[in-house]
Specification:
219 residues; alpha/beta; Nucleotidyltransferase, domain 5; 53% helix; globular
Length: 219
């Protein structure tokens, strides 16, 4: 049995970091190629959503783990070397692999050292599994592309829920002017960010510092 694992939303300032995994029989991997799976970022949201449902239907099993901004802030702000974001994500990927129980797992490495990321995952597993940890694995292995599509589609759903409840938050990434505008408006209204914002992220911290400086200047 072969699994692919990938994430979505690692660099976002709003919303969860989503890790997804899919399990397939090796002989069925070519079906993913015929389905047209590719890097989730290259697909439109509607195409991604349709493919995600088709992949779930085809897979022997799939698993999704969502890491909240609070969990992410907790490790980023801890200043503890063994509790940084890469470790948190390695533990989450281990949870996914533990649920799927493959013989081989292909993962998109989040650490700059792919082999180190692999070891961090293995440390969290209680059974033997061969892990292939590579950068940009979603562009190399269709099964990782499939996991990437599910992860991104799940994050898309989370962002849509936030928009319905809180207004246009943009895509949640600091490169989106709508996201930055939403963060500024939060600070103008309450002086704080809601719990779905990653307060430890540099763009969020910078905006808050600028808002505080303006208040001091006015005050």
């Amino acid at each position: 049995m072969v699994a692919g694992v990938d994430d979505a939303g690692r660099g976002a300032v709003i919303g969860p970091l989503v890790i997804a995994g899919v399990l397939f029989e090796e002989k069925r991997l070519q079906e993913l190629v015929r389905l047209g799976v590719r890097d989730s970022k290259l697909l439109s949201p509607s195409r991604r959503a349709r493919l995600a449902e088709e992949i779930k239907r085809m897979a022997l099993k799939y698993c999704v783990v969502k890491l909240s901004p609070r969990e992410i802030d907790g490790v980023v702000m801890s200043n503890r070397k063994l509790h940084k974001l890469n470790r948190l994500e390695a533990r989450a990927m281990a949870r996914v692999i533990g649920e799927l129980k493959p013989d081989v797992a292909y993962v998109d490495a989040s650490d700059v050292l792919a082999e180190r990321f692999k070891q961090h995952i293995l440390e969290c597993l209680s059974f033997p599994v061969h892990i292939v940890s590579e950068h940009k694995a979603d562009k190399t292995y269709p099964i990782v592309s499939a996991a990437s599509i599910i992860a991104k589609a799940e994050r898309d759903k989370e962002i849509e829920k936030l928009k319905e409840k809180h207004g246009d938050v943009g895509c949640g990434y600091p490169t989106d002017p709508k996201t930055i505008q939403f963060l500024k408006e939060c600070l103008e209204k309450t002086g704080e960010y809601p719990d779905f914002v990653r307060k430890s992220w540099k763009p969020a911290k910078k905006l808050k510092e600028e808002a505080r400086a303006r208040q001091l200047k006015l005050g």
